[in-house]
Each structure stands twice: as structure tokens, then as C-alpha cells.
Design goal:
By secondary structure, the chain is an all-alpha fold. The protein contains 4 helices and no strands.
Length: 78
């Protein structure tokens, strides 16, 4: 069994944790563990994804942008 620790949290944070419980008997430990697991992305970006992001940033820097209206018109969306 792992050792337990006592931590101090503000009352407003405790209320937010209470709201995030999936059921009344879920522990705060389980809520925090679930939040941590959902916030960590273990999958690294591959070269193709990095290249796509770099191209998108280059387009933004050079103002090669389209408005939502222009995109909708191009694809016939109203």
C-alpha cells in the first residue's frame, strides 16, 4: 500500500473537485488521478504532423489566410 499525504486546498477548489466526481463515493484521489491522466498526452508528434504545423505557422506569418465566409463559399456551405 502506498503512503498517503495530507494536502491543503482552498475551499473553492475542493468544491470544484466535488463537482467533478462521477459518483458521490468517488474519492478526491480518484478525481485528481483521472484529471492528471486526461491532461497528459503520451503520444509524440510525428515528422508529418510537425511539418504540417510549421507550414500552417508559415501561412499565418505570411497572411495566407481565408475567412470563414470564403471557405464556406468555396465548399458551397450556407
Amino acid at each position: 500500500m502506498q503512503a498517503a499525504s495530507t494536502i491543503y486546498i482552498r475551499e473553492d477548489l475542493k468544491e470544484k473537485l466535488q463537482e467533478l466526481k462521477r459518483h458521490p463515493k468517488e474519492s478526491y484521489n480518484d478525481v485528481i488521478e483521472r484529471l492528471i491522466a486526461s491532461s497528459v498526452d503520451d503520444e509524440l508528434l510525428n515528422e508529418e504532423a510537425i511539418k504540417g504545423l510549421e507550414e500552417a505557422l508559415d501561412d499565418i506569418r505570411h497572411r495566407r489566410l481565408y475567412s470563414e465566409k470564403e471557405i464556406m463559399a468555396e465548399f458551397g456551405v450556407e
